[in-house]
Amino acid sequence: MKAVILVGGPSRGTRFRPLSLHTPKPLFPLAGYPLLFHHARALATLGKVTEILLIGFHEPQIFEGVIELVKKEVGITVR
Questions:
Q1: Is-contact 71 77, C-beta < 8 A?
Q2: How far apart are alpha carbons 78 and 64 in whole angstroms?
Q3: What is the pLDDT of residue 12?
């Protein structure tokens, strides 16, 4: 089974400012990990999810670090 996470884009989100001026909201650290990591770990507990698709308007290279982290620690492919 595949899961989809909507990651939005860098254009408008003003409610999280000034915290989100230099860090996209999905990558904001929470309890030592990016917010997106917590979503991936929760999906892994379902047992059926084998792949996560990120949908949004951010540059792909922004998520490279968290994608590797999820693959290494959670064991799910993220694209």
A1: yes
A2: 10
A3: 63
